[in-house]
Design goal:
The protein contains 1 helix and 30 strands.
Length: 350
């Protein structure tokens, strides 16, 4: 199904941008953080909130950030804390920041840097928070290593407690933290996906020979992940049986860049790509979907495309569901356009 957009547009971002994050810890409203990617201008972090009348997206805070933002994640247990990966004079850096006390002010103000995530010798790619609440650990990933940190945001401290090396894996790109097991993450490289045990920093089960751009865990079903891949579009996997995927979805007409499970309606899946489109899928996975025992393509026709949101003029690198209202999601195109959409018309088709 093809569709334009009847969503709510936020026009406050003045520069190009790639990162948007749901503020999960804000239980009172639908709120997002987004950061800009300007080479010459002073970059900004915008706190974007849906108005009480649900008729507009308003700027609830505008904060200077010293560098181009390549990754941004909101802390899942403190709505004023978030992490960024950014360019620096030495290459790339990462830090955890705190938003000042004031709220509802659109004038730019300075963020408080709680601590840097230093010690990386490679290009930092991602920072991961465990998604389901308060946890005193944080993960940072560069192109050669995975660092596990012990953090204390109250005392503004962070200490590396273990480190894992990619060894012969080419170019780590990112990953996702298992919401069902805080000792496990899925990390992606240029040609594979591996599971890492954070207790030993050993890597195990793998999806080989796949150029995976993104990975996301199903929040309701253990062992189920979705991947966004260059060759195959979107694939659903059971981590206990990785010989073949459970399901294939066509993806996008150009690169499929990112994929996200809905936090409540776990059969709803969002994807976005460089074809300037966001797709909403009904990606049903049951306990009987164990995948084929012999080579063969999973059946695509079983997976309906519920809607395509096409009212964009640039590549879409950021999508995020609202934790406060899981029927809503925000998308961010590279030109800095944020759009909030509702999927309520499709919930009855679950």
């Amino acid at each position: 199904m093809q569709g334009g957009s009847s969503g709510i547009v936020y026009g406050g971002l003045k520069y190009q941008a790639r990162c948007i994050s749901d503020v999960r810890a804000d239980a009172g409203s639908t709120t997002f953080l987004s950061g800009t990617l300007s080479l010459k201008e002073e970059n900004e972090v915008h706190l974007i909130r849906l108005s009480p009348a649900e008729s507009e997206l308003v700027c609830d805070g505008l904060f200077y950030h010293p560098n181009e933002i390549w990754d941004l994640k909101s802390c899942p247990f403190d709505h004023r804390v978030f992490s960024t990966v950014y360019t620096s004079d030495d290459g790339y850096g990462a830090a955890v920041w705190k938003i000042p006390e004031q709220s509802g002010q659109s004038n730019s103000s300075q963020l408080e840097q709680l601590f840097e995530l230093g010690g990386h010798t490679g290009k930092i790619r991602r920072v991961l928070w465990w998604p389901l609440g308060k946890h005193d650990k944080l993960i940072s990933i560069d192109d050669r290593n995975i660092f596990l940190w012990n953090i204390d945001t109250s005392n503004k401290s962070a200490k590396v407690i273990s480190q894992g090396s990619a060894d012969m894996l080419p170019n780590l790109r990112g990953g996702a933290w298992d919401p069902h097991n805080h000792n496990s993450i899925a990390a992606i490289s240029d040609s594979s996906l591996h599971l890492w045990d954070l207790r030993s920093m050993d890597k195990s089960i793998a999806i080989e020979h796949a150029h995976i751009r993104d990975v996301d865990y199903n929040p309701k079903k253990q062992n189920i992940i979705a991947t966004a891949e260059d060759e195959f579009g979107i694939r659903l996997w059971d981590l206990r049986r990785l010989k073949h995927p459970l399901k294939d979805l066509p993806g996008h007409s150009h690169w499929t860049w990112t994929v996200r499970h809905n936090p409540e309606y776990d059969e709803l899946l969002l994807s976005a790509g460089t074809d300037s489109t966001v797709n909403l899928w009904l990606a049903q996975v049951s306990s009987n979907d164990s995948g084929p025992d012999s080579p063969g393509s999973p059946k695509r026709q079983e997976e309906p495309l519920l809607n395509s949101y096409t009212d964009y003029e640039d590549s879409i690198y950021g999508i995020s569901w609202s934790s406060h209202d899981p029927s809503l999601f925000a998308s961010l195109s590279y030109d800095g356009r944020v759009v909030l959409e509702s999927v309520k018309p499709y919930l009855q088709r679950k």
